[in-house]
Amino acid sequence: MKADIGVFGGTGFFSFLENVEQIDVETSFGATSDRISVGEYKGKKIAFLPRHRHDYSIPPHMINFRANIYAMKSLGVKKIISPCSCGSLQLGIKPGDLVIPDQFIDRTKGRKDTFYDGPKITFVSGAEPYCSSLREIAIECGRKLKLPIHERGTVVVIQGPHFSTKAESCWFSKMGWSVVNMTQYPEVILAREQEICFCGIALVTDYDAGLQGHPEIKSVEAKDFMKVFNANIETVKKLLLEIIEKTDVEKECSCNAALKNATL
């Protein structure tokens, strides 16, 4: 079984696939979050994996990111699109908006975030973690669909499962960072270690705690962000389908040579 494009996300995202077959992919890094659904869309083979499992039973800090990425690589995936929910750290980034991140800040702890634990020593560059080519396609597609899209942004990835304190969130906001999330790291850097192009699509579901000094902003609760997420899932799906259609899976880019000169 082979696939061209991989997608991580919630269970509602793969309903567009045709001729779907669910498969188990064994990895040397353990079990993936769930079975992988492989199907077709516009002549391309798509591999879909719900990172939290189909029943949302795996919290963000317990996801086996290495197994998920390695499984995609073993299927021959060259491009990964990663929709996720996030909280806004800036007033100008509103709930319902989409952010195409170009940078991340890692605030997680203890996650397995490399395939290279030795004895082979590898230092992959993290300077430009997100694929610039795939990001540009996402931006162009967002413009075409006239979506409320922010063309770049820094995503702060926290450990979870609890949300940030007001002090943490205020710090993130004052640093000028854009959104906060729990899953983009280490997904993005592990994909880079496997020389896979990676594009994040962050759906803003709420304002984070650091913006609560503004009277119109309330403290975030799980039920609130899920309400916004569910209301906008079709918008994200439209963008996802447009990106898949416009992506040339045969086109090479610098991500596909990320390990060149990275190994001692």
Overview of the structural elements:
There is one protein chain. The protein is α/β, with parallel strands linked by helices and 264 residues long. The chain has a single domain, classed as Nucleoside phosphorylase domain (Rossmann fold, 3-Layer(aba) Sandwich), CATH 3.40.50.1580. 25% of the residues lie in helices and 23% in strands. It has five helices and eleven strands. It has helices at 65-74, 132-144, 166-174, 184-193, 222-246, and strands spanning 5-8, 18-23, 36-41, 44-49, 79-88, 98-99, 103-107, 149-150, 154-158, 179-181, 197-207. Strands 1, 2, 3, 4, 5, 6, 7, 8, 9, 10 and 11 form an eleven-stranded mixed beta sheet that branches. Helix 1 (65-74) packs parallel to helix 4 and helix 2 crosses helix 5. The protein is globular and about 50 Å long. The protein starts with a strand and ends in an 18-residue tail after the last helix. The mean pLDDT is 91.
Write the layout of secondary structure elements.
Blueprint: E1 5-8, E2 18-23, E3 36-41, E4 44-49, H1 65-74, E5 79-88, E6 98-99, E7 103-107, H2 132-144, E8 149-150, E9 154-158, H3 166-174, E10 179-181, H4 184-193, E11 197-207, H5 222-246
Parallel strand pairs: 1-4, 1-5, 5-11, 6-8, 7-9, 9-10
Antiparallel strand pairs: 2-3, 3-4, 5-10, 6-11
Helix pairs in contact: 1-4, 2-5
